[in-house]
Amino acid sequence: MIDGKKVLFSGMQATGNLTLGNYLGALKNWVTLSEEYECFYCVVDEHSITVRQDPAILRKRARALLTLYIAAGLNPEKNCIYYQSHVSGHAELAWILNCYTYMGELSRMTQFKDKSAKHADNINAGLFTYPVLMAADILLYQADVVPVGIDQKQHLEITRDIAQRFNSIYGETFTIPEAYIGKTGAKIMSLQNPEKKMSKSDENPNGSIYLMDDPDTIIRKCKRAVTDSEAQILYRDEQPGVKNLINIYCACTGETPEQVVAEFDGKGYGDLKAAVGEAIVSQLRPLQEEVARLEKDKAYIDSVIKNNAEKAAYFANKTLRKVQKRVGFPERIR
Ligand code: TRP
Question: What's the pTM value of the predicted model, to 2 decimals?
């Protein structure tokens, strides 16, 4: 608890271009949650180097992501928006927690298995202990809730296991966090393969709407979206492409699937695709304008980066000092 409010922690990686799925499925919900919780929204740049990155691109994308958090409506006076690498406590706690995490647990992580298959030439120790750094992120702030996608649920479970293990050895130290899995309705699938999540690492750029795509590109990608040969606009699992378009439309307009089905009764896929394109364009326009405005205000973004890193470090150090003492590190001499 901070000032009588429960603590929320979440983070995103600045690798790849963020998609509409990241926005509708995560960022938009973060803004709603920020009213209820004391929030830490981190740009997890330390996680990013578990896969080889171009330094200049990583730096640029990290700043773009931080700017996007603000543009999406997270007030940096109220929410702690910062870079993981600016608060050394993340790495320090991760080291300690590494010593309370078993190789067996880590080898069961499906993300590790997937990523090591994908990057077979670079299966580094950081990739293996990725979940431990993530546990450190969360536990450092004594977070009560962690909004994540379903793919991160296993990482939340190991975080809870590590925290419980530590607490049972040394006494109450960490708050045990709960995963907050967003509504399934907001799960956005690829436009080219509606069985697959819309992903920033998709090789086919037509499958994803990127947050910075211009209106023509958005409309074109929607027009090309894969549907089916049923030629009827219904909301059902047998028509995953159409269902996904309806979900996107609903997430942008606030309508329910039933309303959309009624609205498009007797119309064709072309009409639906055009309407979805327009809905996305209007959803993203204010966001893109705000990003453009903020990007020009270098001094403001710099001040957010500095102030929030200090704020985060204050809370991080409180936990870190406690943990260091618990495990037996000598006291600091002041
Ligand atoms: N692993 C998360 C992802 O790829 C990102 C992340 C890192 C995170 N640390 C976190 C998410 C802590 C929530 C809480 O999506």
Answer: 0.92
To the question of domain 205-293 being in CATH 1.10.240.10, the answer is yes
Position 149 scores a pLDDT of 85
Q: Whose CA is nearest to atom 6 of ligand 1?
A: 11
Cβ–ligand 1 distance for 179 under 6 Å, the answer no
- Of ligand 1's listed atoms, the one at least distance from the Cα of 133 is 9
Which whole-number Å values give the CA distances from 210 to 55, 199, 218, 258, 295, in the listed order? 22, 10, 8, 27, 18
169-178 per-residue burial string, b: 16 or more CB within 10 A, e: under 16: ebeebbbebe
Q: What does the pLDDT look like over 50-87, one tens digit per residue?
A: 999 999 999 999 999 999 999 999 999 999 999 999 99
Atom nearest to 47 CA in ligand 1 = 7
CATH number of 6-180+298-327: 3.40.50.620
Tell whether ligand 1 has an atom less than 6 A from the beta carbon of residue 9: yes
Tokens of 220: 């074109």
Q: Alpha-carbon dihedral of residues 8, 35, 211, 198, nearest 10 degrees?
A: 50
DSSP 62-98: HHHHHHHHHHTT--TTTSEEEEGGG-THHHHHHHHHH
- CA–CA distance, 315 with 39 (Å, rounded to integer): 12
Domain residue ranges in the chain:
6-180+298-327, 205-293
CA of 223 to the centre of ligand 1 (A): 33
List residues with catalytic annotation. 115, 197, 200
Separation of 165 CA from ligand 1 center, angstroms?
21
Any atom of ligand 1 within 6 Å of the Cβ of 138? yes
Rounded CA-CA distance 102/302 in Å is 39
Return the amino acid letter for 315: F
Distance 172 CA to ligand 1 centre (A): 24
Q: How confident is the model at residue 25 (pLDDT cuts 50, 70, 90)?
A: confident
